[in-house]
Amino acid sequence: MNEDIEKKYQRLRALFFGLCILVAGMLLLATAKNITKSVSAENWRVYTGVVDGGGESKKIDSDFRPFRTAWLKYSYEIDGKKYNGTRIGYGISNTDDVQQSGSSLRIYVNPEDYAESVLVTGVKRSHIVALIMGLAFLWLAFYLWRRTGK
Fold it and tell me: What does the alpha-carbon distance between residue 133 and residue 150 come to, in Å, rounded to a whole number?
């Protein structure tokens, strides 16, 4: 191959190496943070709450599942004060535990801040998928790095 073309390809590989490292780092750090918060939420106090509303909204007109977002509103009462929440979990955006409006559910509430609550705790499939994706980008980065050095 022509030496000039090879230098251009090396620059492109170096650029993609940097981008892959950036994406892998962001994914792995965010996932580690979500896993840490989700595992620590397992030790929060559990209260009973009520589903106020929920459903699924489409971001893009498609039947492909990742393009949909679940939303949920729930409320709970602690010491006579009512709190509202919408977070399903840290790094978790869907749950099958919620039936319909008015149904009761278990809510994990942060003892230091009663306004912070989640419905699902622990390490879930979405955390594992994010870790695998982060590691895949890391593997791709080092594959490109090896190719750049040749």
Answer: 27
**99 in Cβ contact with 112 (< 8 Å):** no
Helix/strand/coil for 117: strand
**Burial class of residue 109, CB neighbours in 10 A (0-12, 13-18, 19+):** buried
Q: Which of 121, 109, 102 lies closest to 77 in space, CA to CA?
A: 109
pLDDT tens digit sequence for 70-101: 578 889 999 999 999 888 889 887 776 555 56
CA dihedral 110, 114, 117, 123 (to 10 degrees): 0
- Angle CA(80)–CA(99)–CA(67) in degrees, nearest 5? 110
What does each C-alpha distance from 94 to 81, 146, 149 come to in angstroms? 27, 39, 43
Nearest residue to 35 (alpha-carbon basis) of 128, 137, 132: 128
